[in-house]
Amino acid sequence: MHKIVLLEDEKSLSELIKLNLELDGYSVEVFDDGEKAKNHLNSFINADLVILDVMVPKVSGLDICLEIRKTSKVPVLFLSAKGTSSDRIAGLKLGANDYLAKPFDLEELLLRVQNLLPSNINEIAVIGALTVYFNTFEIKDDAGSVISILSKKEIELLRLFIEKQGQVVSRDEILDKIWPDQFPTSRTIDNYILSFRKLFEKDPKNPLYFHSIRGVGYKFVV
Questions:
Q1: Residues of the chain with confidence (pLDDT) below 70
Q2: Into which CATH architecture does domain 3-119 fall?
Q3: CATH number for domain 150-220, candidates 3.30.43.10, 1.20.1730.10, 1.10.10.10, 3.40.720.10
Q4: Among 25, 30, 68, 153, which is least packed, fewest CB within 10 Å?
């Protein structure tokens, strides 16, 4: 799941954008003024896409873009009521990847978001406050620090749960897909789930993401 960070001070618009991005399967974090954004710059730097309203209180979206570009090449999309060619050029010169003038068509925004996001949509997943990087087997926190390195089997099992998100996955299916040529016991799967809960759940005894379905298997829910 891709993470998008939105800086927009107009509440009704930010709620509309957030809702539609989440319906498209993205994780969205919203800030409503530039000072808050600047104080949480790591959220922007570690996102997969940043959407910035140019004219927001305290610190402008242009200044936030400048701060982001000091350390990150994350794709940046500007939203602005200023839609002249000189305004667009100014935004692009600051390092933005795209510029969309207000008012805009929501479908156009969603298409631009899709075009700007990295093509490796299946190579990362956000679970709670952590991000899984499947290519490197790393798990990073919000600050971008690596907190764990997963094994190949752990990565394969996580992929299966994410593909089957919201569905009950039986122990037999897990064994067939993750251990096709081996003969581990069901207890092996239970141990992997316990490890996932310790890593991803705030309260492993009351999981939010990795649920046991008695007598059947497990269900992963984001």
A1: 1, 118-122
A2: 3-Layer(aba) Sandwich (3.40)
A3: 1.10.10.10
A4: 25
